[in-house]
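Anyone else keep sequences and structure tokens together like this?

Example one:
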Amino acid sequence: MMGGWGRRRQTPGLVLSGGGARGAFHVGVYERLLEDRRFAAGPSVLSGTSAGAINAALIAAGKTPAEMMQFWRGIADDPPVAASDLFFRDVARRLFRLTLDEAVRWLSTTHALRTFLWRARNHFPPRTGGLLALWVEYLLTERWELVSRLLEGVREPFLADTAPLRERLVAEFGGEKVPSRGIRLAINTVDAHTGRVVRYVTAATPFTRSPDYLI
């Protein structure tokens, strides 16, 4: 984002949004911005979220658009994210247990079974994944409290293990700290274990308050 340049010198800044693999498109935008004489020296202030945080850190570290694109091509060729076996094992185990409990409940009352069979008409003729879709639909509409029991039984808090991505970033930056070269950098992420937004900044400002920000 660039403001108008008048007699008073203004500080160029760049704000990059999230978007997963679409973060690669930021590289082309950044490359075109560098062609503008007002932005030729690059941004002095950088902020990014998720994929935008990665790009902001790469720019702060002095990576050229070509080097940034090489990084994203590496991500595309060998995605550094692995699905969590523990998460899906917990989900499968919990669903099996809830199915048994619900089957026992159907023996004592016919209302739940009639509701289940009534909803089954929307999934006829049977299709791939139809039975699972029917069961999830039943949980969400008739037995919502079972969703809480399902989630309580899942010990793993995230679908994917992003440790390989972290390792790749550490290798890219040559360590666990981003060499920001004096650029003011603020990046945001979400703690997978707590769901809390964590903000990292290179220096305190009047708007940064602990514990929301890590400096």
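And example two:
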Amino acid sequence: GQLRLQVCCFSQAVQHYWIIFKNAEIGDFIVQLQITPSAPEPSLTLIVSLSCLTRCNCVGEKQFICSRSAVVNVPCRNLDQWSAVRTMFELTIPSSEKEFWATYLESNIGFRLLQWMLEEKKEKLTEEVEQIFKKSKTYKVSCSSPNVFCNPVLQIPNVRARTSVPIHLHIDEDTPNQTTTLTLTSTDGQESRCYLLNISCNG
């Protein structure tokens, strides 16, 4: 037979679970379930446009006040993570409550209710679930292009806000038009975000 499962990863760690099947006629058996998260797909494209004529005027280390500097804004909220939370939660609630949670799940009231409900089911939330409820997070920032320098640390004071935060970049001279990736990894290792970075040179 087939056992259909819907799995959602809330951390970057490999998780192992045991599913126990009991049957008085054929006996009991156990299946081990291993969940291995894949690298996140880029969830948003960020655009950077610079003049080809500008030259770097940094002295020593690269500076973000240089004429080759740029700023991109990334969402405070991890949109993919909250989409997963919403989907998994909708699968566990009765139909009579779906209208309420569709309206209030991502509000402050709904957020607190969800946290309380999960804590009621378990005395202590697992680390990968608990990190969803953190208000402030610090991320390590990296770019896959050797032509792009970014501040290696970004702190988002409210990861539930529907606003954005700036990331400062420095683009090397003579950088060709390219599409690269910007990755944010939380310092606790539980969350990873990926954005496409589209760099174009004008003039």
